[in-house]
Hints:
alpha/beta, elongated, single chain, disordered N terminus
Amino acid sequence: MSSPDKRLRPSGIAAAVAAQGPTLQEALQAAINALRAEDLERADTLFEALLAHWPEQPDALHFLGVLRHTQGRREEAVDLIQRAIVAMPGEPGPWNNLGNVLVGAQRFDEAVTAYERSVALAGDQAGACDALNNLGTIHRKQGRLDASEAACRRAVDLRPDFADAWYNLSQALMAQGRIHDALVANSKAVSLWPTHLQARNQVLRALLILGERDRAAQLYREWLAEEPDNPVVQHQLAACLGEDAPDRASDAYVEQVFDSFAQSFDAKLEVLQYRAPELVAQAVERAAGAAQATFDVVDLGCGTGLCGPLLKPWARSLAGCDLSVGMLRQARQRKVYDVLHKAELVYYLDTQPERFDIAVSADTLCYFGDLTQAMRAAARALRRGGWLVYTVEALPEDSPVPHRLQANGRYAHAREHVRTTLNDASLQARAIEPVTLRQEGGKPVPGWLVTAGKP
Length: 455
């Protein structure tokens, strides 16, 4: 059917409306459908025709007001919706849309009143949720964070699958500094939004934060069916399932992951209050004494070289190794390393017998499960009297397992496993200290700061 001619006179317009169907409801639905399809010209024509045939019809006034708002004709929009409200004062929808128009007109106090009226009329029904969510937004923007949180929480209580309200709640919580709660709320929003509109990584991360491993595992399986050789997906599926975990992350996984965010690595760690390099340097000072450039030092899994400047005062020579070319490029720019090698940690150490006085590894061994081979290789590469300092993520003291692959793709280790693997490599554990390595999801990440010596 061709679009009605907007130049028709009233009698012709009425005929056009009649052509849409024999009833008011059919004519109204045709106009609303055009509005929802964003066919604004057709919607405009149909609403005008409908009101010519049924003057002051409140639904037509209401939705024509919404259309005028979309067209930027805000004063007309306010007038039309207010006329609709006069005809149906007990309906919450027009009050909510009036609030939206008033926000667009920068009339915020009036908008709050309109939203509150919509909520009052809807009561404890799901129809209150849109207005509650809008209240949450306007309260947050005006600094009323408690009121914003309360409105959003009521919205998600009434409608738990309301993704936008979960997102607005996360913003209110973030503004209050409640990072973990904000992250959980944001993850809930992400998990509810259509997955095809989002990056897979974002959806999966949200599901894992929420503890919804079954849903995450299913998405990983679907991804792996499309890319069966993707090492990142293979590893993350194992981490998600928590079973059949590999002994360590594959070289391909480590290389692909760290190449992908080498450029932003330092900035991300700064946000996470990353402390491992500083902790490692402090342990080196306690072990080796005041800084004198008399030692051959190696930075294992050097990444972008955050440890390099902190270790340089002790180094006669400073070497670094890493699997990621992208990371090594960043490390080279620091101009503190004498040599940098692209190599896997254990292989590299096996090629350097009795080469180093000090070996450090800040948060690299968290990509190993069993530490036995890494400790033996470190012992072979150290000279007598040498020192090994490293960090790993920590399992609780009462852990029944020596190590565990976590949902984040990293391994955590039990203190006893750390001690046992040092003894196996004939290294003496001088200290296994509980530390906080960084913040993740607003919570501290526990770790072990390990200092060991080669007799």
